[in-house]
Design goal:
With 90 residues, the protein is mostly helical. It has five helices and no strands. The mean pLDDT is 83.
Length: 90
Amino acid sequence: MKTTIDIPEDLYQKAKIRAIERGVTLKQLVVTSLSKELEGTSRVEDSPVSYWANRRLLPEYEAAMKEGAFRPREGDRDITDLISDDSDAR
């Protein structure tokens, strides 16, 4: 069933971020949360899995990595050299 509800902007943004962190759609997050609330199983998990443990690369980024787009090229300077030059200039 489709319905329309008004969600405060800050709550919507938090929900959208949480959905992205979990790798689900906003609809899936809302349905799961509503189900847990109505079933009375809404509780803090003993060992929640962090966002970083579940993250995935965007397909475009993963393809670029496989093609070697982010590997250093011959003649590229190391980041520590660049940082040293910048701090010396100050």
